[in-house]
Design goal:
single chain; 310 residues; five-stranded mixed sheet; disordered N terminus
Length: 310
């Protein structure tokens, strides 16, 4: 009888202990928060919850440009009169040309300082694509591939001139190259990732396109016979011929579309706030007649740099 009573007491004690443990665990849990009641209509203003101002919508890289006070722009300074180097000057001042004047105008419009990042033509495009630099002003034209990879600005112009891709040849070969068939099997130089390279590939399919690092190198290769022709923009060709009378234009011409008759600016994809500001600046520059003035100044500077000033 004592053994049964003891066992019964022990069982009751263990049951009580387990119940206590369960209650203790339940008390340790965090109770669910009660919903906050709306303030009464006649509650004093001090008792109402403070209103917080919604954060301003981010404008992406444009915010950073304004915060830093600097607009970084990349270009390939081998394309007079659009962008080239004045070796009589130092630092940022050595970069001159219509595109440089335009980039400075855009920076002033935003209210920041301009810093030029010189690169090869294809490296400029890579830098903007990877967002290393937000913008490139370097004599670009619209292409479908660029439209897919970048934000593309509105058009701007080389003065009153439309873009006109041409082929430079040696004066001695003036009678040799007069038709597209004459370039079959011929080495034709053009900058990599340029409109000229696309045109050589598509409109002279039997020629041998040769990528040149920069236009200056291409001119030397043409003169020493490493290539037989060089595809460039006509405005650039005119500056080159002024300094190199041994070079002339080939009478055969490329066919271009209306979309490629003027220049555009490349901006990192998705940076629409910067694109909008750039387009505002382009419209303002156009309304003020700046393109013609910049063209004339750039051509005059190019002649001085090349030693062909009359």
């Amino acid at each position: 009888m004592k053994k049964k009573t003891f066992a019964k007491v022990l069982s009751l004690a263990l049951a009580a202990l387990m119940l206590f443990a369960l209650c203790a665990c339940g008390a340790a849990e965090t109770p669910a928060a009660e919903p906050t009641a709306a303030p009464a209509a006649d509650a004093p203003a001090s008792e109402a919850p403070a209103e917080t101002e919604a954060p301003a919508e981010s404008q992406g890289v444009l915010d950073q440009i304004k915060a830093d006070g600097v607009l970084y722009v990349t270009l390939s300074p081998d394309f007079a009169p659009m962008e080239f180097v004045d070796s009589s000057k130092d630092g940022q001042e050595q970069y001159v040309g219509l595109d440089v004047f335009l980039a400075k105008y855009i920076a002033d419009y935003i209210g920041v300082k301009l810093v030029i990042e010189p690169m090869s033509f294809d490296a400029c495009q890579t830098a903007v694509y990877t967002a290393s630099v937000p913008m490139s002003v370097s004599g670009y034209v619209w292409t479908e591939e660029r439209a897919e990879s970048y934000e593309i600005s509105d058009y701007y112009y080389d003065g009153d001139n439309k873009i006109e891709p041409v082929i430079l040849i040696r004066t001695a070969d003036e009678e040799k190259y007069t038709s597209s068939e004459d370039f079959n099997g011929v080495d034709i130089g053009a900058q990599n990732a340029s409109l000229q390279m696309q045109l050589v590939t598509s409109q002279l399919p039997d020629a041998n396109p040769v990528a040149v690092g920069d236009v200056g190198t291409g001119v030397l290769e043409l003169q020493n016979g490493s290539i037989e022709a060089l595809a460039v923009a006509k405005g650039n060709a005119e500056i080159i011929m002024d300094a190199n009378p041994d070079l002339v234009l080939c009478p055969w011409e490329f066919t271009i579309t209306e979309e490629t008759e003027a220049f555009v600016i490349l901006i990192t994809k998705g940076e629409t706030a910067l694109l909008n500001v750039v387009n505002e600046a382009l419209a303002k520059a156009y309304s003020e007649g700046m393109y013609g003035a910049w063209h004339d100044e750039a051509v005059a500077l190019a002649k001085v740099v090349n030693g062909t000033e009359e």
